[in-house]
Amino acid sequence: MQTMKIAALALAMTAPMGASAATTVFEATGLGLFDGMFGDFFDVDGDDVDVGVTVETDGTSLTSATLLVSDASGVLLESGDAFDAMLSGGTASLSFRNLTGSSASLFGGDTARVIFGFDPGQVAGGTLDPVSVQVTATDLAAIPVPASLPLLAAGIGGLALLRRRRG
């Protein structure tokens, strides 16, 4: 019975594996301006990557939004296709699809979520400072199984069978 458990474990180890957790790809700290209908985020943290987000609303719902992430080499990520927006306390998020740019391949599912963190007491004041921004990938490309893993599983299964014949 013990041998069968070891063999089953060895076979289970050969099954395909992948990653699908949300991962932060870009981060920034900056200044937000919002007047109830129009909003801008300006990256002021002085690092090599600049994140820019512009949002328009009709007062109650999102009408348009753009995302631009760039560095000295050019556009890393860009989209004007926002399809989901949420505001809750000191967190706001926007989801973008139809991503373009040199880093778009990092977003395996072609979807990026931009998460803003800020002091909720300043929302009505027009200027939000500081605002932290994370651009996350929710559907990452699958990470392939190393080629040696099935060989290791077969070896463990073989040792289990050998042990059974001798025991």
TrEMBL record:
Keyword Nucleotide-binding: no
Annotated coiled-coil segments of the chain: none
UniProt keyword annotations, A-Z: Membrane, Signal, Transmembrane, Transmembrane helix
Stretches that traverse the bilayer: 140-162
Signal peptide: 1-21
InterPro entries in alphabetical order: Ice-binding_C (IPR013424), VPLPA-CTERM (IPR022472)
Protein name (Swiss-Prot/TrEMBL): PEP-CTERM protein-sorting domain-containing protein
Keyword Signal: yes
